[in-house]
Each structure stands twice: as structure tokens, then as C-alpha cells.
Amino acid sequence: MLATQESSSTNGARYGYKLSDFQLIKTLGTGTFGRVYLCQLKGTPKHYAMKMLRKVEVVRLKQVEHINSEKNILASVKFPFIVNLLCTFQDERNVYMLEEYVVGGEMFSHLRRAGRFSNEMTKFYAAQITLALAYLHSMDIIYRDLKPENLLLDHDGNIKLTDFGFAKIVHDRHVVRLVQYLAPEIIQSKGHGKAVDWWALGILIFEMLAGYPPFFDDNPFGIYEKILQGRIVFPPHFDPEAKDLIKKLLTPDRSRRLGNLKDGADDIKDHKWFQGVDWQALLNRQIRAPIVPVCTHPGDTRNFESYPEVTDEPNSSISLDPFQHLFKDF
């Protein structure tokens, strides 16, 4: 049934699965109220990423709305550079989101290993991210959490945007979480919209090219001050056109920020730095990626960090579920 779902244009269907239908193989990541596991559907060769979230912690930390929103948004999108949600389910203890397993790991790991990316490497990834953000914005979705940790590389090295916990459906300008990526309007509580994603793209392009973000400090408030001051010190090796694009994305006045003008994302795609990019071939995944992750089998985890495993969480259960009604769409 999952194979059918993967070829469908609709994500997030529910199939009545339960945790015991899957073999949990390894932790791929951890968070405040859950883990992401590599898992395998028993009796099949298929591997998936299972996001397992503890209900009691989600409720305690007042994240119910975020979790339900993440599920609903992922279930509504289908795009080559966004992770696919295959199905969701719940039991007395947890809610589960079963997603495609993106075998290449986080861009964060590849960037730290490389130190910094070349101009051409950065352009490739920035172009794919631009297409993903433009797609989300066309559906009135702002992502709000762009950072290297939330960008995965698939087996061919193409981008997969993941973790939609802070994504939000907006209409025009309503109302991340990494401090270095916050736009001025978020810090100043002015209300924010799609322009915050283009600010974050500017931060990301700088970090890919430099190996560090443009605004950093040992104290979060120091970072806030530097963001609001808006002074960017570019390393000498930066391409002049890349510098120009970054400056136009990191414009504190969102009414003048590239991507938030009359022609939207097209203004970014038409920028001189992207000259020569075949956007249709890129969308069709016909351009060879600069990093092709090493992968010898579908369940290969070599591109992910190792985490201490827990043995009691997946098998433990409780008899009563006071929170089921809060996650009725799972």
C-alpha cells in the first residue's frame, strides 16, 4: 500500500498501520519531544523515516497546533525538493509520521565536512531551494525554518526540504528558529510573511559560501543586535554577483527585499548570479548534483550522525489515551 501511496499525488493517507508493523533500525535524529527512526515495513524491503512524537510532551510544551499543522501541510504538498509524507497514525503514547527515507543525510554534515562550498555548489543548492520556497509560497505556505540541518540530500544529491514544524499557511502578511536565521521583522514582532523565507535564503547562501553565518555572537541578544544593524562583512573570496544577491535578500526593509517584490521568486531566479541555470532541467532533476552521497543499499545510514538508542520507548505503552482527540487527523 505504501508503494501505491508513493506514486500518488496525494500525501499523508492513513492506512491503519501500527508501530508493531515496522522494525525500528536506527535513530536518525532527536528532538525535544521525539525521535526520527530509520524503519522497515515488516515483510517488505522498503525503508522509511518514522517521526515518533510523544503526545504528553507535545501537549506539555503546547505544540499540538504545530504538530497538526505540520501533518496537514506535508499532506498537501508534492514537490521534487520537499520530503514526501507517506502516512500518519497514532497510538496511546505517540503520534507517527512516516516519510520517505532520504539516504544522503543533512546538508549540515556535508557543509561542516567541506568547511565551505564552492560558488557553483552553492548556486546549485540555492537554486533548488528557491524552487521549493516558490512552490510553497504559491500555496500560501511559509516555511520559517530554513537552515542546513533541515536540508537533506537524496541518493542523487538533490535537496529535500524537511521538518515543517514551524511552517504556516498564510494569506499575504500574517502572522525559527535558529537565531542566526531570524529576519528583522520577526525579532521586532512586526508580523511576518513570505519575505522571511527569502531573508533566510540569503543567510543560507552566505553560510554555504563562507562556512559560517553572517550574524553570529556568543549571546543570542548579540545576534539580534547584529541582525537589526544589518552590517555584513563578506570574505574576500565571495563572487561579486553572489554578494549582490545576498545583500538584496538581506534587506531589512521587507518591502524592498528581493523575492518580496512584484515579480516574487522570479526576481531571484533572474538575478545575474543564477545566469545560466536551466531551471526546468533543475526541476526535472536532470542536472548532476555536486555531492552524490555514498550509499550501498536502501537502508544505509552512514550519512547520518549516531545517537544513543533507547530500548524502552518504542515498546512501552499506556492503557488510556487522554490526548487522542487532540490528534484526530492522525
Give your account of this protein's structure.
This protein has 330 residues and is an alpha+beta fold. It has two domains: 2-103 and 298-318, 2-Layer Sandwich (Phosphorylase Kinase, domain 1); 107-283, Transferase(Phosphotransferase) domain 1 (Transferase(Phosphotransferase), domain 1, Orthogonal Bundle). Helices cover 31% and strands 15% of the residues. The chain has eleven helices and nine strands. The chain has helices at residues 2-6, 55-60, 64-76, 107-114, 119-138, 184-187, 195-210, 220-229, 240-249, 265-269, 279-283; strands at 22-31, 34-41, 47-54, 85-90, 94-100, 141-142, 151-153, 159-161, 168-169. The strands form three sheets. It has a five-stranded antiparallel sheet. Strand 7 (151-153) and strand 8 (159-161) form a beta hairpin. Helix 5 (119-138) packs antiparallel against helix 7. The longest helix is centred in the middle third of the chain and has 20 residues, at 119-138. The radius of gyration is 20 Å and the shape is globular. The two termini are 17 Å apart. The model is unreliable at 1-10 and 173-177 (pLDDT under 50).
Brief synopsis:
The protein is of the alpha+beta class. It is built from eleven helices and nine strands.
Work out the radius of gyration.
Answer: 20 Å
Low-confidence stretches: 1-10, 173-177
Strand order of the largest sheet: 1-2-3-5-4
Share of helical residues: 25-40%
Overall, the morphology is globular
The largest sheet, given as strand count, sense and whether it forms a barrel, is: 5 strands, antiparallel
- At CATH level 2, the architecture of the largest domain is Orthogonal Bundle
Determine the CATH superfamily of the largest domain. Transferase(Phosphotransferase) domain 1
Mean pLDDT: 88
Secondary-structure content class: alpha+beta
Number of H- or I-type helical stretches? 11
EC number: 2.7.11.11
Domain AGC-kinase C-terminal: 275-330
Family: Belongs to the protein kinase superfamily.
GO molecular function, one term: protein serine/threonine kinase activity
